[in-house]
């Protein structure tokens, strides 16, 4: 983990890039019971923690996918700009 992590009581505050770059390690820590505040430009935008029973109500209502074949029948769509450009924008990697 980098020096940008800040502890806020029992919850660690980490920037979204730290979560992106170390997601496997952070998710292991969440599975072990730790919680994180995720920041974007210094502002807390999300809290990452283990789910509780109330969080899982929707998962119980959702039904499994029923389509197992026929994916090749779906019409392909060409992107208007390079996908890497879209991803960079979404990830805020550009200044």
Number of helices: 4
**Major sheet details:** 4 strands, mixed
Radius of gyration: 18 Å
- Number of strand segments: 4
Distance between the termini: 24 Å
Instruction: List unreliable stretches of 5+ residues.
Output: none
Roughly what is the average pLDDT, rounded to an integer?
Answer: 82
Structural class: alpha+beta
Helix content: 25-40%
Strand arrangement, major sheet: 1-2-3-4
Strand content is 15-25%
What's the order of the H and E elements? EEHHEEHH
Overall 3D form: flat
Structure in words:
There is one protein chain. The protein starts with 5 loop residues before the first strand and ends with a helix. By secondary structure, it is an alpha+beta fold. The mean pLDDT is 82. The protein is flat and about 50 Å long. It has helices at 16-21, 23-31, 57-61, 83-91; strands at 6-8, 11-15, 36-40, 43-48. Helix content is 31%, strand content 20%. Strands 1-2-3-4 form a four-stranded mixed sheet.
Topology:
Blueprint: E1 6-8, E2 11-15, H1 16-21, H2 23-31, E3 36-40, E4 43-48, H3 57-61, H4 83-91
